[in-house]
Amino acid sequence: MDASTLIESFTEFAKQKNIDRPTMIRILEDVFRTMIKKKYHSDENFNIVINVDKGDLEILRYRQVVADDAEDIDPNTQITLSEAKKIAPDFEEGEEVAENVSIDGDFGRRLVQTARQTLIQKIKDLEKELLFQKYKDKVGEIITGEVYQILPNKEILLLDADKKELILPKSEQIYKDRFRKGDNVKAIIHRVEMINGTPKIILSRTSPLFLEKLFENEVPEVFDGVITIRKVVREPGERAKVAVESYDDRIDPVGACVGMKGSRIHSIVRELDNENIDVINYTDNVELFISRALSPAKITSIKIDADKGRASVFLKRDQVSLAIGKGGQNIKLAGKLVGLEIDVFRDQENPEEDEEDVDLEEFGDVIDQWIIDEFHRIGLDTAKDVLNMSRELLIKRTDLEEETIDFVLDILKKEFE
């Protein structure tokens, strides 16, 4: 393989990988200098000129002319006067001789083949590095990829517009997601890692940032910065709460995000497999913010213990279940949104409403007080309060064992038989 063929094949391969001309020349020069070092042990007295457009290569070796009887002559950096005169008869001692080194004749076939493989590998390594840098700068942006493989562990491999591989792990998928080969999937670039020299682009559909970016795409006021998203909390695929604030008093941030007849929010909800999204007007008034975060429940009063990071919320009986929400989602997300642990308590303003109910304290002779206190902690003060909540939710919201829950439920049920 001659120099022109080697350069042409490398240049064509590099262009396919979208490698720019200066980078191609730099890689070629690095590889040729490596070849020179292997053969001559040094490249300091060599000059390499490459023209990738024409496939031309010129390697010049510079040597100093020394006397024929000089001692310890270095054949790489020095040339005897008699040898120099064969090149040009007018050379004298002390002058510098420039000679062309032929890649075809002066380097062995094996060394040239090694150079060709090295060139290809360098381009592949560069391609990986460019891919890593490209996506590293795009972390936090939304991308759409095409599904081309679904692995047995439910991990999904996608291709971007340049046919580069993207990964959507099962842990970053909404549990209701169902994709097939060829589907277009929208996700956020979650993180980019370099593992054993290979870039891994990890996507996510469960990140709160994904929901935030969807709002940016659908709501011009958010994209323009007129409305800012203060915080997003999610139970992916189930429910989310988004706190928004407007820097323009003329713009209602909640109304702008929801859109006319819900037009803006609906497209986001569809993208997230019908995730229920509450858009909440942010305020620095903590009590008001808690009240808005627990919507649709109506709060009677709130007590905040800032030192303990807790808030006690009091509601009428028919509002307690609304505040807690399905599976405790509403109160859990509200707590994350406001940054406080929220405890719900039933308001005792109208004791006559409880004539047919029984206060838990009256079961103190058969139920330990610490168990009763645990029910109080989550806002359950009466027998019917406990019986109206599902067994699964009682287990989830309290720190009680399943056997203890079943024991209490059995006692309370007998009270009303």
TrEMBL record:
Pfam family, one: KH_NusA_1st
Annotated TM spans: none
GO molecular function terms noted in the UniProt entry: DNA-binding transcription factor activity; RNA binding
Domain of life: Bacteria
Keywords assigned by UniProt, alphabetized: Cytoplasm, RNA-binding, Transcription, Transcription antitermination, Transcription regulation, Transcription termination
Domain S1 motif, first and last residues per copy: 140-206
Chief place where the protein resides: cytoplasm
Protein localization: Cytoplasm
Entries under InterPro entries matching the protein: KH_dom (IPR004087), KH_dom-like_a/b (IPR015946), KH_NusA_2nd (IPR058582), KH_sf_prok-type (IPR009019), NA-bd_OB-fold (IPR012340), NusA_N_sf (IPR036555), S1_domain (IPR003029), TF_NusA (IPR010213)
Gene3D superfamilies listed in its UniProt record: 3.30.300.20, Nucleic acid-binding proteins (2.40.50.140), NusA, N-terminal domain (3.30.1480.10)
GO BP annotations listed: DNA-templated transcription termination; transcription antitermination
Role according to the record: Participates in both transcription termination and antitermination.
Similarity field: Belongs to the NusA family.
UniProt name for this protein: Transcription termination/antitermination protein NusA
